[in-house]
Amino acid sequence: MTDASAPALFTWEFAADPYPAYAWLREHAPVHRTTLPSGVEAWLVTRYPDARQALADARLSKNPVHHSERAHAKGKVGIPGERSADLMTHLLNIDPPDHTRLRRLVSKAFTPRRVAEFAPRVTELTNRLIDSFAARGEADLIHEFAFPLPIYAICDLLGVPAEDQDDFRDWAGMMIRHGGGPRGGVARSVKKMRAYLLELIHRKRAQLGDDLISALIRASDHGEHLTENEAAAMAFILLFAGFETTVNLIGNGTYALLRDPGQRRLLQDSVGRGETDLLATAVEELLRYDGPVELATWRFATEPLTIGGRSIGTGDPVLVVLAAADRDPERFAGPDTLDLARRDNPHLGFGHGIHYCLGAPLARLEGQTALATLLTRLPDLQLAVDPEELRWRGGLIMRGLRTLPVSFTAVR
Ligand code: HEM
């Protein structure tokens, strides 16, 4: 059995560069049973066709009640801190028909048009953040830029008043810092966020505005509305799903550009000419090349099934490794090369099937605006440390840098 000689997974070296290990798995053990750092046993799916099929397979449930070990009850799967709260009923934890109903309702509120109208605000936020450190000539792009941008953006969209947004920054900071670590602080932050959101929803119900929370309250489907708990869970998952992912898109994306001067120059010149085509394909390529979501969120087999020739038992967890599938040489030409102009790029960075990322239009807007503004305003942006010194976060699902120290000369 080939799996016995599999490379070590989930070590520090692996976190710094998981791609060689994923290449080995794709070739020798494309559906691989492993023990995760939490002790939970799970299948890793690494080839593109298997990954795509698994993401859309209705026999793989998102609901942790289907896990044979019921590890969710022990806090080993799912979002930290969500267990005791009513936040469980969110899109990433449910299956049809509940998923279909909730997703339809939220889609009526969180429309591509609402996101498009938000573009000037994202530009303004991006510039404001750059203003806050530009004069210094150096910054940590994760803490001072990539991290606050999506938090303020989502808070603005939801309609969280400006004076409360720094609370969200603190709570989110706690969640990202301790993502896989101590549960106490994270659980407290989640609890505070939930209490705040419930109160806000209550207040907005009395006086609806044109923000996303008001739209969630207003949204109806065949006369059906979201309950206050459902609206709170929805606002929470928008924050949760849209936050660390976007931090990592900006962080991993900027890092990849800084390490490839030729590609960076192409993009910088194109942005300088006011073009948007290359910027759009660049963000897709960065999502493919080193995307924010390394492994798709949990799935559990509701009946025995076969993936890539391996038998998966009822109740087994299946983790689709998006980062591995998106480097599959059977699907992508020169998969380990960053090619910002890549056109044939059906990457799985936003998932696939009914759980396909609901926030993709917002993520694209934030990613494109952040990169274009950075390259324009800090044209000589460069890494301020040796790449060897950079540390990656150790979480299971996400892939992202802890810090990204840079230096530059700012222009207005
Ligand atoms: C789902 C990636 C940003 C909201 C997903 C999934 C992926 C993903 C891979 C599917 C997970 C699975 O099937 O297990 C990303 C990436 C982002 C990003 C790479 C940034 C670059 C956002 C933003 C929001 C958001 C900004 C909202 C504000 C959601 C929601 C779901 C989701 C609500 C669940 C959809 C469902 O289950 O029907 N995302 N996401 N995401 N994403 Fe995103």
UniProtKB/TrEMBL annotation:
Pfam families (alphabetical): p450
This protein's record includes keyword Oxidoreductase: yes
Superkingdom of the source species: Bacteria
SUPFAM superfamilies: Cytochrome P450
Keywords in alphabetical order: Heme, Iron, Metal-binding, Monooxygenase, Oxidoreductase
Family listed: Belongs to the cytochrome P450 family.
Name of the protein described by the UniProt record: Cytochrome P450
Native source organism of the sequence: Streptomyces silvisoli
